[in-house]
Write a structure and sequence with these properties.
Elements (H helix, E strand, L loop, with lengths): L1 H18 L4 H4 L8 E4 L4 E3 H7 L2 E6 L4 H16 L4 E7 L3 H11 L5 E4 L3 H5 L7 E5 L5 E5 L6 H4 L3
């Protein structure tokens, strides 16, 4: 009996939390919410400035996430293969020291931004990681998913 109550409680809490942020389907085609985060060197990066230059892929991740680790080689490859694409790895709610050590060890060849309080993840309605958000030049959200976009070359040419 307690298991049912706990399951029902968990289900209700998931619904409440999910209702606090816009679902991914509502974000597609809309302008990306702007934010400013620090990179691993302490420099501030503003999204609006980046997307005014070129398409931008936001990849929300964490050092403890196995799938996130599996995506690193692909993201390194894309960083080299598509110079017209800006990639930002956005670490969610971890310390600068932990993320910096991880990024150096894994040789992450794209900028890492720190969402230390999770406010940007919340702004984008994240319910889990990894999550990827592809923005067209100018900032329109053209992809939102829990995996890297499979047709990245076609998407960034739009």
């Amino acid at each position: 009996m307690k298991i049912r109550h706990l399951t029902l409680f968990s289900f209700i809490m998931a619904l409440v939390l999910a209702s606090c942020a816009p679902p991914a389907s509502q974000l597609l085609g809309s302008p990306a919410p702007n934010f400013t985060l620090s990179d691993l060197k302490g420099q501030k990066v503003e999204l609006a400035s980046a997307v005014s230059q070129k398409p931008t892929l936001l990849v929300f991740w964490a050092t403890w996430c196995p799938t996130c680790k599996e995506e690193i080689p692909t993201l390194n490859e894309w960083a080299a293969q598509y110079p017209q694409l800006q990639i930002f790895g956005i670490d969610v709610q971890e310390s600068r020291d932990r993320v910096k050590a991880f990024a150096e060890k894994r040789k992450m060849n794209y900028p890492i931004l720190l969402d230390e309080d999770g406010s940007v993840a919340e702004l984008y309605g994240l319910v889990g990681i990894p999550a990827s958000v592809l923005l067209a030049k100018g900032g329109e959200i053209i992809y939102y998913g829990f995996a890297l976009p499979e047709n990245i070359g076609q998407l960034i040419q739009k």
